[in-house]
């Protein structure tokens, strides 16, 4: 049967698939190829999410070591406003590279799109 762990994993994977949807649209609309993704925020503390995102996108993901970079940006702006020097030295991110084959990543993504479409159709039939 379905357990809590299955639902949690499905939610995490769904975040990655939705990110892929957005990146596909951005690449199409801007006529560019995105070669890597930078990520921050609380969700990036989940290493499975970061690795799965890299696998699904088939590009490197750079996760900020400082998770809440919004606060870092505010500190940077405050330093600039006070004419203070602000810099971070060294490597400020952890890198994740695709580990799964493109064919497997594409299969997972396509299965997710089918599942979403099926859920939409099912929800419309109950209205």
What does this structure look like?
By secondary structure, this protein is mainly alpha-helical. The chain has one domain (4-117): 2-Layer Sandwich (Nucleotidyltransferase, domain 5), CATH 3.30.420.40. 59% of the residues lie in helices and 9% in strands. The chain has helices at residues 4-30, 47-57, 69-81, 102-125; strands at residues 37-39, 61-64, 93-96. It has a 3-stranded mixed beta sheet. Helix 1 (4-30) crosses helix 2. It is elongated, with a radius of gyration of 18 Å. The relative contact order is 0.13. The mean pLDDT is 91.
Weakly predicted, low-confidence segments: none
> What is the CATH-assigned architecture?
2-Layer Sandwich
Class based on secondary structure composition and strand pairing? mainly alpha
- Radius of gyration in whole Å, from Cα? 18 Å
Number of domains: 1
Q: What is the CATH superfamily?
A: ATPase, nucleotide binding domain
Number of helices: 4
In percent terms, what proportion of residues is strand?
A: 5-15%
Mean pLDDT: 91
How are the SSEs ordered, and which strands pair?
Layout: H1 4-30, E1 37-39, H2 47-57, E2 61-64, H3 69-81, E3 93-96, H4 102-125
Parallel strand pairs: 1-2
Antiparallel strand pairs: 2-3
Helix pairs in contact: 1-2
């Amino acid at each position: 049967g379905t357990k809590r762990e299955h639902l949690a994993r499905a939610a995490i994977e769904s975040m990655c698939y939705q990110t892929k949807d957005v990146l596909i649209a951005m690449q199409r609309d801007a006529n560019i190829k995105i070669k890597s993704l930078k990520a921050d925020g609380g969700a990036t503390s989940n290493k499975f999410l970061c690795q799965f995102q890299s696998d699904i996108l088939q590009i490197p993901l750079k996760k900020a070591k400082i998770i809440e970079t919004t606060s870092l940006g505010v500190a940077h702006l405050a330093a600039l406003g006070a004419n203070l020097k602000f810099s971070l030295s060294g490597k400020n991110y952890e890198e994740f590279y695709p580990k799964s084959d493109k064919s497997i990543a594409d299969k997972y993504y396509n299965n997710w799109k089918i599942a979403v479409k099926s859920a939409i159709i099912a929800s419309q039939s109950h209205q």
